[in-house]
Amino acid sequence: MTFLQSSDRKHRRSPRSPLLPQKHAAVAEPTEAGLRGASFSGAVFNLSTTIVGAGIMALPATLKQLGLIPGLAMILLGAVLTNTSIDMILKFSRASKSPTYAAAAADAYGGAGRALLQSCIVVNNLGMLVVYMIIIGDVLSGTWSNWVHHTGVMEEWLGQHWWTSRAFLLLSTTLLVFAPLISFKRVDSLRYTSALSVGLAVVFVAITAGVAILKLANGSITMPHLMPELVDQTSFWKLFTTFPVLVTAYICHHNVHPIENELKDPMQMKSIVRSSLTLCSSVYIATSFFGFLLFGDQTLDDVLANFDGDLGIPYSVMLNDIVRISYGIHLMLVFPIVFFSLRLNLDGLLFPYAKIPITFDNRRFYSVTVALMGFIFLGANFVPSIWDAFQFTGATAATSVGFIFPSAIALRDTHGIATKKDKVVSWIMILLAVSSSTVALSSDVYGFFSSDGGVGS
Questions:
Q1: Cα four-point dihedral sign 358, 361, 366, 368
Q2: What is the pTM assigned to this prediction?
Q3: Does residue 86 carry a pLDDT above 90?
Q4: Cα–Cα nearest to 343, from 218, 152, 182
Q5: By Cβ atoms counted within 10 A, which residue in 17, 155, 389, 435 is the most buried?
Q6: What is the DSSP letter of 397?
Q7: What average pLDDT does the chain have?
Q8: How far apart are the C-alpha atoms of 64 and 299, rounded to whole Å?
Q9: Candidate from 21-30, 174-183, 234-243, 313-322 with smallest mean pLDDT
Q10: What does the pLDDT look like over 46-75, one tens digit per residue?
């Protein structure tokens, strides 16, 4: 036991700025207290921005696969399970005085547990950021689906040239937008961009809902199927490929501690989590319902790609551009929030015994930043579909970060505070996560060898 505590002190580092080692907490306290000051609303916007990222674009495709009623029920279930798992993390982090999610894992399982969790966070966040850049590329330069090219806004405005190519537009976005935003060393510095990003997501939902309601009123669309359409064995197994997407849509656990550590009153964090989940699940339900209602069986994996043709209403072209541009900018503003915890956890993996926090080591800070951006840029140019990225990260890393690790920490119960309910819920979440992920990965393999894999097909 003495060995684990010693290892924990070596590995446990606070994401607060300055990021000082845990053993110097008494010295760092005045400085950290001076940096506390994030407001309730700012924290809600930052956490909501972490949640409402690229996952929202694939949710209409999950309703296409599951049917309207089961799909909406699964979205609500995802919010409930996410709230439960975050409550567990906060409860056991406070009992162990752990300033990070990784430190809570280290308290329960030592350095190996911390490293494994950080690896899962790195894989999950890398996958998410690749998805963000893929969607931004789809918005700006277009995408292909079933041998049909869906044009991007820059192609529509300027035509097909080298300066409207996917690679050039993503490189320009990286240098002009991402580079300045990911240079911030405190997550609270992004509160205004986070508020704007949430507002842009609401614009997307409002336009989608307005168009769907208008077309439903004039009879040009009908209600979509309420239950899944099972015609063969392949269609049955494809139902399970939606699970990773639903899990990924709510993953925000990696940013809970960085946001909490900058609050004026850290005890507000539970209320912040519930407020964020309520806001985000409302946005998810509206987007899924109206997106599926609007496009029906023609709903693509990335529903933004559906906004490239005639919507059957006046000003269709203008509305298409507003929808795609607003959500493209939204993802650009979400990017630095997810990147913040990615960089922090990768640094913890690569330099677990570094004496100087990454915030104060400019060489390490910018080296890790540039390396990560290079990898994400390459991934966005070579991963063919957002569904491919969701399947990999959602069924493995996201499931581990969101459900398996919180449950495992509660079951370990190193401080003897877990209730019987905590343990029962933990076992249920682990069984659901493991079984669903196993079936989802198996169905992915099955779909790969079948003639029509993928939700959007």
A1: negative
A2: 0.75
A3: yes
A4: 182
A5: 389
A6: I
A7: 78
A8: 7
A9: 21-30
A10: 888 888 765 677 788 788 878 888 888 888
Which phi and psi angles does 15 have, rounded to 5°?
-80, 0
Q: How many helices (H) and strands (E) does the chain have?
A: 20, 2
Task: Say which residue the tokens 């989608």 belong to.
Answer: 208
Which stretch of DSSP H or E encloses residue 145? strand 143-145
The encoded tokens of residue 174 equal 């990286």
Confidence band of 298 (pLDDT split at 50, 70, 90): confident
Residue type, 360: F
Alpha helix ranges (H) inside 97-190: 101-141, 153-158, 166-173, 179-181
Q: Which two structure tokens, joined as six digits, stand for 247?
A: 């899990």
CA dihedral 304, 307, 313, 314 (to 10 degrees): 110
- Compute the residue count for the chain: 457
Task: Please give the Cα distance from 122 to 119 (Å, whole number).
Answer: 5
The answer to whether 395 and 437 are in contact (CB under 8 A) is yes
CB 224 within 8 A of CB 69: no
Q: Which of 129-138, 270-279, 296-305 has the highest mean pLDDT?
A: 270-279
Residue 403 is classified by DSSP as: I
What tokens were used for 402? 């969101």
User: Any idea what DSSP says for residue 416?
Assistant: S
For residue 18, whether the previous peptide bond is cis, meaning omega lies within 30 degrees of 0, is: yes
Dihedral (CA of 3, 6, 10, 16) sign: positive
- Give the whole-angstrom CA distance, residue 163 versus residue 285: 37
Coil/strand/helix, residue 150: strand
With the CA atoms of 258, 25, 372 and 184 taken in that order, what torsion angle do they form, in degrees rounded to the nearest 10? Answer: 60
What's the angle, vertex CA 185, arms to CA 380 and CA 114, rounded to 5? 75
Two tokens at 76?
Answer: 């609500």
